[in-house]
Amino acid sequence: MPFSPKTLEFIFENHARDSKEWFNAHRTDFEQYVKEPFKDFVLQLTPTMLKIDPQFICDPKRLSRIYRDARYARGKSVFRDYMWYSFGRKREGAVKTYPEYYFSVSPTGFDYGCGYYCPTADTVTALRKLIISGDPAFEKAKAAYSSQKVFTMGGTEYKRDRYPDQPAENRLWLNRKDIYFFAASDDFDALYSPDLPKKVARDFKKIAPIYDFFIKAEQIKDNI
């Protein structure tokens, strides 16, 4: 079943009430209006995602938790006002990071994209090495980004240009502490449409070369 107004209504009210008792009393609504649409969404995207990376874990059970870890919830609502699912490889140890694709829903709309949640210093160094050397993986990633109009590059930028000798289009990628690509929408008709998984799948394929570039950085970072 697709996402619906009831999906957002539940997320909004559950966050506003911020009550475990209320959530437990309405758990069947959570299962029906939040978990089931996400499950359907993930299953429909799975064939496309496995073509992008056969090592992706495409298990609807990996849906984000709707509540925060109590250790980090001080001063915040226990229940989140958004839910997300991420397609990524299995992590090998606590410090192993991989880029991921993600899709997120909140009462204000939805967003999706690809990138790192928190790249390690070694990963960032590897990315920069590939960029500066003009590696084919980066050139394909750069071409993929410039040829589409869905995703915007994000990430914390340095206040000063650290690579003044590089071409401007390369500096766009180099002068960031982290990097990701995102698309955000408040088009609720699109969110509720049964065709949403097809649209997201098409968009994800557009930036597959960017994901491949990230993966190549992971493959070489231990040898730099």
Give a quick precis of the structure.
With 224 residues, this protein is an alpha+beta fold. It has a five-stranded antiparallel β-sheet.
Structural write-up:
This protein is of the alpha+beta class and 224 residues long. 46% of the residues lie in helices and 12% in strands. The chain has nine helices and five strands, in the order αααβββααβαβααα. It has a five-stranded antiparallel β-sheet. Strand 2 (100-106) and strand 3 form a beta hairpin. The longest helix is centred in the N-terminal third of the chain and has 26 residues, at 27-52. It is globular and about 60 Å long. The mean pLDDT is 93.
Mean of all residue-level pLDDT scores: 93
Low-confidence stretches: none
- Based on Cα principal axes, name the global outline: globular
How far apart the termini lie comes to: 47 Å
Give the strand order, joined by hyphens, for the main sheet.
1-2-3-5-4
Strand content: 5-15%
Helix coverage percent: 40-55%
> Can you count the beta strands?
5
What structural class should be given to the helix and strand makeup? alpha+beta
Break the fold down into its secondary structure elements and pairings.
Layout (H helix, E strand, L loop, with lengths): L4 H13 L2 H6 L1 H26 L30 E5 L12 E7 L2 E7 L5 H12 L3 H11 L5 E3 L13 H7 L5 E6 L2 H5 L3 H11 L1 H13 L4
Antiparallel strand pairs: 1-2, 2-3, 3-5, 4-5
Helix pairs in contact: 1-3, 3-8, 4-9, 5-9
Spell out the key features of this protein.
single chain, 224 residues, alpha+beta, five-stranded antiparallel sheet, 12% strand, globular
